[in-house]
User: What shape does this take?
Amino acid sequence: QVQLVESGGGLVQAGDTLRVSCVASGGTFNMYAMGWFRQAPGKEREFVATISTGSSTFYADSVKGRFIITRDNAKRTVYLQMTSLKSEDTALYSCAAEKAGIPSLYEFEYDYWGQGTQVTVSS
Assistant: This one.
């Protein structure tokens, strides 16, 4: 019933800025903790950022100071603004929802997932 759809990915150059979005349909969005994960070819999926129902945030060390996660409950949308992009940021970026409302860096604790949006950063 709950569906997540990401958008905004694309091909950019190192140092550029890009914002990806995730729109949720169904469920009670304002009660969910939300997260962003990414997976590069040949690598395991890794945690990027999470935001609570009260908009407190937590980031992976690799993106601290460069990425910002925000949410707009009225639009049922969570965003990830990425600045100073590096080639190592190249990956499929997916959003996820945690229905208990508890933010987490562990993917197994999330209940719903989107299909992802591709971000490619040229060096």
Summary: The two ends are 40 Å apart (CA to CA).
